[in-house]
Amino acid sequence: MIMFIVIMFFYFVILWLSKCSQIGWLLGAFLFVIFFAGFISKGGKFAKLTGILKICPWIGLIVFLVIFTMISQPPVKRVPAVSVKNPVETGVISVSEGDISGVYNEDQTVEVYAGIPYAKPPVGELRWKETQPAESWDGVLKCDEFGPMSMQSRSGTIYNSLVDLVIYKRLNFGFDDNYIEEMSEDSLYLNVWKPAGDVSGLPVVFFVHGGSLMTGQSSYGDYNGETFAKEGVIFVNFAYRLNIFGYMAEEGLAAESANGTTGNYGLLDQIQALKWVKENISAFGGDPNNITIAGESAGSSSVNALCVSPLTEGLFRRAIAESSGITAKKPYHTFRDLTDALSMGKDIMFEFGVSDVTELRNLSAEELLNTSYSNSAMTVDGYAITEQPYLTYEKGNNHEEALLNGYNANEAEVFNYFVGKITPDNLSERLQTVLGDYTDEAIDLYKPKTNADAKAAFNSILSAAWFEYSHHTWSDYMADQEKPVYLYYFSKENSGLSNKHAGEMPYAYGNIDTSQLAFDESDKELSDIMVTYWINFAKTGDPNGEGVPEWIDYKENRDQLIEFNNEIQMINNPFNKMNEFLDSYQNGL
Fold first, then answer.
1. Cβ-contact 288, 150 below 8 angstroms
2. Chain segment 234-285, per-residue pLDDT in tens
3. Choosing from 297, 301, 309, 376, which is the catalytic residue?
């Protein structure tokens, strides 16, 4: 009986974690009933089997369960624009390429238009080419599903479910999401959330998702724009080319380009999406002259790149940047020298055994994902980015007229789970590439005595270098230009992702779900305040307003920033001293 219960338990847990279809549950339940009646119960036909025959029914049970699991694997499909079953369809909106319709959210206060093509599919000859405008269509295009996620390596369904359960504390016992999201090179689609009904002149937030320029998708729940739309802000997000498809640089590709560009295809997608929004957002009731670009992690680095690209002048007004940037003289991530990028391109050609880009284009997308090289950085290509970003800021040629930006208290911890043992004795060696000759002085701020102390210092220093420092330099440049700039520090703890990298996302965009075990009412209260700041900034360029604590402009006191926790207050930047070391190290490069 115990073995029977254990097998049944693990079978249904595997079905749940694998997001298997209902057929697996029904067949499994039927088989367990039959097996119990025939073998476990005292009156069963096989209950009195002995010897080797006794294990045969068990083997048969397991074989059938494996078969049931295989035939009930989740289907591949696109993510619905809303979680409502049989949502009400919106009226028709006309954009530059044709007519579209969307769907309403549950209470019909928000209209969602998902999967709008903003560019030609970058497939075939358009792989590793500059983004081309979308083609027109006939009839009304139903935009009730997100487009496919861009090509990327992704973990198995069980792993993803465990991450949702253990890290994010999300429990879902229904069958609404029992499918695998479609993935394709044909992924250049965007999504719009707007208040229901006839609206006009509304501010717009254009959001760039993160994922190290390697992964990510616009359908992710933390990027849902419903809360912003309910507050009178039109929210847009989108997919763009990633990894080898979005950021590989290669000399042959540069030679065939009329603009001489290579290595920034994902960034060019972002620029095309922004152009599309500038041209079409008035059809949704948005103000094309009041667009704020926003992003988190690699999306924030991308926002930084959009701020310095000559191709984006006049396309937006303000910027929101969370947990990354490329304003350091030598950015620690998401940016690399063109020579390094081209060298990797040569290595990739050799890796796949091809002699030119035509042969490389003949490889399947799935084959290309198997590359052992990480294409996770933008570069100075002379077209989308014409010089090191910090030089553009020094000249005052960046485009944003105001900046809201910041970082989380323990950014680096999620990246350092598997870095090996950190001790007081090896800490200096492990940080040499981050701080050079200033490493020991920086470590002395923490005075680590135990291995736990050393690991904490390691995480803190890397949090400062990898994430906080770019916001320090970015904010300084903006303050030097006498532009409004608001800097934050997110330190709120919860039982989920907490204040680690990306932990602020559900708070800032109003996607706190108090039914998730990680959150309580205090999280919802903080989210309401952060959403108010973000929306005020998108509307006016100033996050301050009625009902929220004063957020002092960074220009008035560069030592301070606002802390988002159970108490919201201006505090001294916890990394002020670390920034001195990082400044000295960077200036000496």
1. no
2. 999 999 999 999 999 999 999 999 999 999 999 999 999 999 999 999 999 9
3. 297
Rounded CA-CA distance 540/555 in Å is 18
The SS3 assignment for 257 reads coil
- The conformational region for residue 118 under phi > 0 = left, psi -120 to 50 = alpha, else beta, is alpha
Radius of gyration from C-alpha coordinates of the chain: 26
**For the structural domain made of 405-587, what CATH number should be given?**
3.40.50.1820
Point out the residues of the chain with pLDDT beneath 50: none
Query: Nearest Cα to 129, choosing from 250, 212, 211?
Result: 250
Distance CA 245, CA 304 (A): 21
Helix H or strand E segment including 327: none
In the chain, domain spans: 2-71, 76-400, 405-587
Cα torsion through 339, 345, 350, 355, rounded to 10: -110
Q: Using CA atoms, how far apart are residues 84 and 339, in angstroms rounded to an integer?
A: 50
Q: What CATH class has 76-400?
A: alpha beta
Which residues are bridge partners to 286 per DSSP?
202
> Active site includes 374?
no
CATH topology identical between 76-400 and 405-587: yes
184 CB-contact burial (10 Å; exposed 0-12 / middle 13-18 / buried 19+): middle
Question: What does the alpha-carbon distance between residue 408 and residue 406 come to, in Å, rounded to a whole number?
Answer: 7
Q: Which tens digits make up the pLDDT trace of 365-392?
A: 999 999 999 999 999 999 999 999 999 9
